[in-house]
Amino acid sequence: MKIKKISHIAVAGSDKEQAKILYRDILGLDFNGTETVNREGVTTHFYEVGESNIELLEPLSAETPVGKFLDKRGPGLHHIAFEVEGLDEYVLKLKDAGIILLSDEPQLGAHNMRIIFIHPKSTGGVLIELCEQQ
Ligand code: CMX
């Protein structure tokens, strides 16, 4: 059971073309693909930064969590994702500590990873995702 690395830092925004100009054309990051995760209501666009990624989140509609976030706060940092080994053990440990999770069990996220979110109210205001390769 350990945190292996920062998997990605997610940025909520709807202008994927502007993001491409900044991250790929100007900063020179490799574009690492696009994937729609219907259950989360987002299309994700990945840009590689060493072993991690910047994940641009584009909402599928205004009613999704990211759509609501943009409406309330505007574009900006959305969450930090840690890749872990032993996700199920982390879930038990978090539950034991009374930390609020957004789902009872891990769900399937982008790149076919098992993911679970910790509510920002339990973390001092930062939405945290734990993810694990299957
Ligand atoms: N970071 C920090 N705080 C956040 C937040 C975020 N990303 N999103 C919402 N909040 C805050 C709100 O500002 C609000 O704070 P106040 O009560 O102080 O105003 C509080 O959390 C509650 O927010 P809300 O708008 O009432 O929204 P909900 O409680 O309905 O939902 C959350 C908040 C985090 C549960 C919801 O956004 C969610 O389910 N997020 C997880 C799913 C998600 O983000 N999926 C996309 C990622 C896809 C992927 O990477 O695979």
Structure overview:
- It is a single chain.
- The model has no long low-confidence stretch (mean pLDDT 96).
- An eight-stranded mixed sheet has the order 2-3-4-1-5-8-7-6.
- It has three helices and eight strands; from the N terminus they run βαβββαβαβββ.
- By secondary structure, it is α+β, with helices and mostly antiparallel strands.
- The longest helix is centred in the first third of the chain and has 11 residues, at 16-26.
- 26% of the residues are buried.
- The protein has one domain (2-132): Roll (2,3-Dihydroxybiphenyl 1,2-Dioxygenase, domain 1).
- The two termini are 15 Å apart.
- The chain is globular.
- The chain has helices at residues 16-26, 65-73, 87-96; strands at 2-12, 30-37, 42-49, 52-59, 76-85, 107-108, 114-118, 127-132.
- The structure holds carboxymethyldethia coenzyme *A.
- The site of carboxymethyldethia coenzyme *A has 23 residues, from strand 3, strand 4, helix 2, strand 5 and strand 7.
Quick take:
The protein is α+β, with helices and mostly antiparallel strands.
